[in-house]
Amino acid sequence: MTITYSALSLDTSEKSRGQIDGEIEAIRKLVNEHLSEPYSVYVYRFFLNNWPELCLLAKSEGNIIGCIISKVETHRNTRLRGYIGMLTVTEQYRGQGIAKKLIDKSLDIMVDKKCDEIILETEVVNKKALRLYENFGFVRVKRLYRYYLNKHDAYRLILPITDKACLRSTFLEKLPEEKCIEARY
Amino acid sequence: MSIVSKIPYGVVIKSNQFKLLHGTHALEVLNPKLDSSLLKIQPFDLIHSCTTIDDLNGITCGLYRALSAWLDNNSLSVSVLSCAYIEELLMDYRDNGLVSSSDTSDSLKDHVLVPFSLGILQFVKFVLKLGLAGVVCEEEDINTQTMDLDMIQNVPLQSVIDQIECALKWVSDKSDVSNKSDVSDKSYSFLYDSVRLLTLLLQLPSLLEINLEPFSDHQTPQVSEKLQKIVSDLTKALELLDKLGKSSDYATKINPPLNCFSTNVQKRRNNRSPPKPVVLLSFKDSIENFRRLVQDSLTILHITETRDSIQLVEFLKCCMNKREATNDEDDVLGLHVVPRSLLQLFLIRDDETILGSRKGFNIGSLLYDFMLRICVQDARILSCSDSTIQTKLQLLLGDMKVPFFHFLSCVSQNPARQRQFIGKEVIYWDKFQVESENLESSVNSSIPDNFDGGASFPIMPVASFVYFSKLISMIDLMLKSIELNLFKDLRELNVGYWLTSYLIDYLLQHLNRLLDVVKLRRKQLVVSYGKRVKGDKKKAKQLHAEQLVRSESYLNYQVSRYSIYRTMIELKLVELQVLNYFGYLKLPKLCKVSETLLFNLQLKPFQSIGVPELPSFADYNDAMAKFNDAFGQVVKNGDYIYFRKLIKSKSIDLNAFFRTIQIQLDALEWPSFLSDSIKEDLMELKRSSIYTELSLGQVVKILEKDVDNARHLDVYIERKKHHLYFPDIKVVKKEKKMIT
């Protein structure tokens, strides 16, 4: 069984509108089914329409069986911050290194985009997810009390990419406007 | 349609007034996970569902379970407001404004359920007040969303208490009748106790009406009486909770009538959260939640018994570090949310006074008093008559209230937020260290305040106090990081302990310097008063001297406490570095970044700190390499006797520190509620120190047997039942798998 990895494309010259809409719906269904937090259509549109290249899909026989959804934005006008918003893999495909591959690819893209740091939050009790991210070098920088709707605490994890990640933003120079990245929508 | 088709795919048409990000918090219509209107109404008969005493007990018990669920981080919509009777009451209140039970009716609902529900709402109103006062975090600590329902804001507490008292009398009378007619006495007794508990809990709000003079033995009789009443009522509440807890067999049988608690309110009222099922804690968990609330409320009331600023600061630290024993290793529970927010509001009033002092004793006075008791007493700069210097000093002291206020308000935070508050404190203290040093060094030539060595050894008492506070905060931040499990593996724990030990070294040096300051002041005192003073002067000298002795005792106590930490950390570091030698502290396999970056990120909270100069990754690496070289020789010679001796000598040191600190603690003559709490913590530390010694001993034993064993170890960090700052490092030799 071959698993293929690709970014979501909103380019209608590659696929029909119907096909793209179908993919977005499949992503939504997958995330809704596997993540405890409820997300509205705006959340998906915010990530997918602004950063489709950071929505990586794992497919088996053409079906989406896993995805990672991320974004890159300027943080306090001083550094570029990558953020992993969602990661999920269908149960029957777990344990095959798909999540690891998705994270790896996503991190590489964010590093290529010159991110200074990459952050995410994950549940304190989700040992598998913690192990997965921490294997890439993510460091727990903060504990967030009762962060999720299910009342679990979260850790904020950071992967420092450049020295800027280790400096407080008060001590960093403002980025020139052309280097700032903002959400289009 | 033709216009729509012209929009390029992927382009979002929206108003420029908002970004999609703002919409991420929106509730989406027709999304079953987000749209409450899709919920189905559950039928419930408000009139005929409370006809027996067991129905009533089921509802009151359900309301307690709902109230405790709210206090346990659930929203009001899924807990208290999910009760049909509460919703009915609130709607009546909204429409008619008046809420009172009918005297003419003989129904259980009117006589008991309505007053009881009003009591529950009064309690909710009180907690909402705490939640909205800005001392705890909305959503994180307590959810204050009321679905726009008015929580009987204009109904006075006393009128509700009076109604509940009437209800109690009614239950009591009925209970007598029921005995005669052989109706279950247990049901009435349970009902009576449940209602009585509410009247006792409703005494808590009156705490905020009390104004005290801090550290005084002589409060007005009214104040003493009010305080006593609260303590006595809370003590009775604890007894009642014990009694109710014993009725769990009965309580678990009397479920509220079907659909009495439902999601209906989420559909009918202005629900701003995603739809969620109703949450009622189990009876047992509910009792436990209230027991914590009452017990912690009694604990915070001890603040009225502190007799000086040092005791107050130490008491706040005890409250801050109080943790609830939990079976879940991932859960870190501090003081109950109600008493912890109440404590701060009781301590610091809107006008900044402490405990509502009528004499105007405020945050600034408390800070000043605390500084005096640490090292600032008799500082020359304080008595300087130069108005320019005095203005500058007063400005500085005013600014220093900011980090001190952060410290005072840290107690009302949950354990995770406490660390963030301490982080802010560090930054402020660092700022004011520079400012205080600049001020004191600029005036030292005109107002010399030096050690005996002369002008080259200025005391700089204010800056010394700031540095003391900063170092304590920096160490606290590291220790809290360990407690919150932020150092995920052995490698990070090693960096964390290594840095903490580095900071403790600086603190111990500084404490010894402060002790020298106090000793110098004692010498100066003899000179300034002369040896043969009489009368009032003699008395003043004596008081002055006693205060300096107390400062010295406190600083010595701090030396012992941090020496215990340091020695325990030394043992941990030896163990971790032995494990490092055998490759157990390597970077994770797929790590994408350098260890230097990871090290620097761990040190980020101190990135801007100039003094003490923080070690670099090269320094850290150097220390590790030195250990590896020395340990390599040990392994080569197979002689581990040094480590046996090390464990023994550290054990002797620790025992000595534990003995000394007990004596010092007794000498400080702190009230028992404070010293007992500290002694409890010391016991935990002692226990963890034994585990630390045993764990290192185990590693040495494995190595002594066969050094190759060190390549086949299972090593993990165990937190449960160990001191918050000293989790156990478990080292076990991997068993060889048998091939059958």
Automatic annotation (TrEMBL), chain A:
Residues 10-162 form the N-acetyltransferase domain. One of its GO terms (cellular component) is NatC complex. Keywords: Acyltransferase, Transferase. One of its GO terms (molecular function) is protein-N-terminal amino-acid acetyltransferase activity. Gene3D superfamilies: 3.40.630.30. Pfam families: Acetyltransf_1. Belongs to the acetyltransferase family. MAK3 subfamily. This is N-acetyltransferase domain-containing protein. It comes from Eeniella nana. The lineage of its organism: Eukaryota, Fungi, Dikarya, Ascomycota, Saccharomycotina.
TrEMBL record, chain B:
Residues 10-161 form the NAA35-like N-terminal domain. It comes from Eeniella nana. Keywords: Cytoplasm. Pfam families: Mak10, TPR_NAA35. This is Uncharacterized protein. Transmembrane segments: none annotated. The keyword Phosphoprotein does not apply. It is found in: Cytoplasm. It comes from the Eukaryota.
